[in-house]
Description:
Shape: globular
Number of helices: 4
Number of domains: 1
Strand content: 5-15%
Amino acid sequence: xxxxxxxxxxxxxxPAPMSAHAGKVCLVVNVASECGFTKQYAGLQKLHEELxxxxxxxxxxxxxxxxxxxxxxxxxxxxxxxRNYGVTFPMHAKCGTKPGPGQSPVYAVLAAATGVHPSxxxxxxxxxxxxxxxxxxxxxxxxxxPELRAAIEKALA
Length: 157
């Protein structure tokens, strides 16, 4: 199983193959609209805007698994992201991140590569241009964190 071989559904209900991001550095984040970390959307959008010209993208995966903090429909999630944070990075259909039969294949690949499953909303996985999973950063790691930024810059180099 490889990252670029996965084909989750986009927030718009259409296929959103990860192969479309081959050649880009990706930061994969399980997001939620009603979480204490939700304000990280602003920093994620800023990273996306600043680094997209260099081949970087944030990929958002809403999940309702932690504290039921993403209860909305796809339309409600899109509206929330647009209205509050102007999110332009790709968003995907709500998915499972925890191990088990409901886990998204994307998260199975991320966890297998790092040995770490998300333990809360806004866990971050850095994926290289070749689809190799490079690192995991926990929910408390802010998008502006120097260690995260250094890892992104190294992957972009």
